[in-house]
Give the backbone structure.
Amino acid sequence: MKKSLLLFLLSTFTMVGQQVDLSYYLPKGNYNSQIPTPKSVIGHEVGEWHITHDKLVEYMKAIAASSDRISIENRGTTYEGRPLLLLTITSPENHQKIEAIRQTHIDGTNNSSIDVSNNPIVVYQGFSIHGNEPSGSNAALAVVYHLAASKSSETIDLLNNTVILFDPSLNPDGLQRFAYWANTNKSKNINPDPNDREYTEIWPRGRTNHYQFDMNRDWLPVQLPESKARIASFHKWLPNILTDHHEMGSNSSFFFQPGIPSRTNPLTPQMNQDLTKEIATYHAKALDKIGSLYYSEESFDDFYYGKGSTFPDINGSIGILFEQGSSRGHAQETENGILTFPFTIRNQFTAALSTLEAARKMRVKILKYQQDFYKESRNSGTKKAIVFGDEKDGAKSFHLAEVLKRHQVKIHEVKSDFTQNGKTFKKGYSYVVPMNQKNQRLVKAMFDVRTKFKDSLFYDVSAWTFNHAFGVDYAENISLSKAGNEIVDLKKKKGNVSFKSDYGYLMAWNEYYTPKALNAILQKGLRAKVSMKNFKNGGNSYEYGTIFIPVQNQKLNALELYQFLDKTAKESHLNITAVSTGLNEGIDLGSRNFAAITKPKVAMLVGNGITGNDSGEIWHLFDQRFDMHLTRLDMSYFTRIDISKYTHIIIPSSRIEKAAIEKLKTWTKNGGVLIGYKNTAKWLATNKFINIEFDKTKIDTIDGVSFENKSLKTGAQFIGGAIFEAKVDRSHPINFGYKNDKLALFRNSTLFMKPDKKSYNNPIQYTSNPLLSGYISKENAKVIKNTVPFKVQKMGSGRVVVFTDNTNFRAFWFGTNKLLMNTIFFGDKM
């Protein structure tokens, strides 16, 4: 090991400021001179500059055009319009029959009697899903050149027996953002001082995509365009191995899986981990050869199936995570010596090739494993079904069904309305999923409920149960007789207005897209009111939060209003009911219990000190889901601008400078609604915006824990991401639109607020046994009971609202998105 370290130090020190050529990465051998090198297309050597996505695309197109080993496809675009490329790399002979190879491969997963031993193995290689972990995408340049140009017998044999699905950039927008930063801060004389500006990106940094999502958490929820493209490719081919190339802290070496064995999801077969460990021997051998330090099985895990290295494990594939110590620029001083960008690229290149070597040598064994996985999956499925839906919200149910369809899961409509466990599953609003199908293991993973674990530490969330995330009713072990026709073409509900009225229109607040519709109505300059009580009109029951749009005294005449509302209803996929009288059972439409709604103008603080993921999720919710403007105010200039025109200001989890305190207090007292998330709740309490009493976890003694394991005991007190049940007061405006008295909330903080002594000030309160799914320590489980995740208090003419946790988590927590929207539209009524 000392010899390896010496080689590492010698190689890295000599390369600071020194240009390397392609031979630094490539194995020795003959290469086809007709294949363009990266430098001949992009204008610089691999590792000399950080590759920008446009140049990466240019090279991938050029090499595909010059090589009969490569074909290329554009599967769509990112939010910023960058192409989502996929290269298929195999022998020219295989390319001639590529569709037949694909179909034969899929047939092998559907029929265990098919002999798969002569099939090519399929390997999906993906790079730099975190844009500021760039060594992967930069290594992709050298890898693709090697595969296209190498004349070695090993490469030829590899391509004859392998189909490589090659994704050079899993995050084009983030990669471009980071490359711009690293390149514009590069000196001619490379300065490896970690304090140099080059190594500290500005907010929000390049890790995430356009809306600041960590896309390596979206493989299972599939909410983003990049994810939709790669998941479609994954299920089209069902690769046998999928590699995911990342970076970690600069003082680290190189990690490859397996991860920590006790943190593997129990739904993952043991054989998966055994094969991963065998593949690891190929990585070790290859890295030994170039003298690189590495480790395995000491960190990271295989628990959450939303990550690229774990998602394949529940789909009959083998996911492999690579983590390279990052130079974060072109060269950086570390405890291991000077770590250069080319060195990080070479390690990624080496691991990419060692994966392919393992695939070549272990081909039959891995193909057979996948075939057995699906054989067992089909045989272990029950002749029962699950059902989910929401009889008052077709959109949430649709979007959950949409996720299942993206994962090639068969779903059926409900044959006819039925009730199970006190919940009504209505045709058109509910879906049946048979559990005797090929992908039933994946379905189990999506709806898995788990509260007991071998380990108490998690690299990511410990629960993601989809029925809770989407806020739908759910039942298991349903007879297949409840299933109607299979849904081949999934479509959203059509919206409309029942008829033209000369009196008014009612819009129930239950549907997911009602905030989008209400915003369109208010932005049009129309008046709308919200019901603070339940009532009946025309024999129909209406609940708290129903929106009333009167016909009289509007800027549109009766016909124009009807036409506008009908268009709005169609665009928001909901029904608006025309009424002919204001006389109701209960409050009448002219009652003061219908409160006028003010058109919102919403801002959010962003920039240094603000958590980028949280702010990005809020931005995405407003912009992509509800077509609402959200002004993002950067902290760098916040104290210098006039904020009086905003009705609401959102502060995601943050550490805010004191200079903002008086400005925000004055604005709130003058009628603003201030909304704080997570750490901001503590900041608001400390600075006297709101009176909150927090409860703390108490650990009196720790016995039987060694010095070696002390960090594990401390780490066990974190809530990495679990789901908890709360009881809700549906008459409170924060809960308008929810039909049930219980709500599933996602939580990844240990911020516990004590309830108010007045029960009506606790509209959302955890139950006495709140854990629905996921991990929580025994100490925290005692504290969380009956605490509250939400508080609202008056401050002058305004309101201060706080949430202890993220109601918009990763774009797939549809079930609690309405809490923020209720604060926007009804916050002044709380």
Observations:
- The longest strand covers residues 764-773.
- The chain is about 30% helix and 20% strand.
- Residues 270-290 form the longest helix (21 residues).
